[in-house]
Amino acid sequence: MKAVEILAEEHRLLFRALDCFERLLDETTRSARLDVAIAAEIVEFLEQHIDGCHQDKEEEVLFPKLMENTTAEQGALVRELLGVHECERGLLDELRGHLMAAAGGDDPSGDEFVRRGRVYVDLQRSHAERENSSLLPLAEQVLGRADDAEMLVGFRKLEERYFGSEPCDPSQAVDALSERLDASSSA
Ligand SMILES: [Fe+2]
Ligand SMILES: [Fe+2]
């Protein structure tokens, strides 16, 4: 699989994870009770796989490659996307803080978790859609085979940094989350 195809595949996983997050937020609003354990699993997944490894693949591997190869105008797209990554990481830090406070019994923090969680979901969705429609086609257009081979090496190093040398299938984690949400909403 080419580097760009790996990122597109990770975006599909991201959309599924965001659907799970949105289901949790809807269920929390409906029942007025935050399931702290599932919320913690979702936040951890986003920290590790999305704002962590996936965005590091973009920032440390793809974006520098593009900056070597693109025009100033195309470089502006990369800078815009980097700015959104910063916002997303800031929101995720906030969510982690609200979740810890909610787990300690602070109900207003649970409400803030839901409110800011919806902002995060909307921002991540529109960001990944923009990357699918603008960034990945640009990368396909300007990067060649040698670039791709180098990027694949960079991706593997990042996966090892995050998850060690054992093969890791994050889609199984999203399947498990989806099943837990099914069980929780039918309980
Ligand atoms: Fe991104
Ligand atoms: Fe992305």
Structure description:
With 187 residues, the protein is mainly alpha-helical. The chain has one domain (3-186): Four Helix Bundle (Hemerythrin (Met), subunit A), CATH 1.20.120.520. Helix content is 89%, strand content 0%. The chain has helices at residues 3-31, 36-69, 72-103, 107-142, 145-163, 170-186. Helix 2 runs antiparallel to helix 3 and helix 3 packs antiparallel against helix 4 (107-142). The radius of gyration is 18 Å and the shape is elongated. The model has no long low-confidence stretch (mean pLDDT 94). The structure holds fe (ii) ion (2 copies).
Helix content: over 70%
CATH H-level superfamily title: nmb1532 protein domain like
Q: Which structural class fits the helix and strand makeup?
A: mainly alpha
Mean pLDDT across all residues, rounded?
94
Oligomer: single chain
Spans where pLDDT lies below 50 across 5 or more residues:
none
The CATH class assignment is: Mainly Alpha
Q: In angstroms, what separates the terminal alpha carbons? A: 41 Å
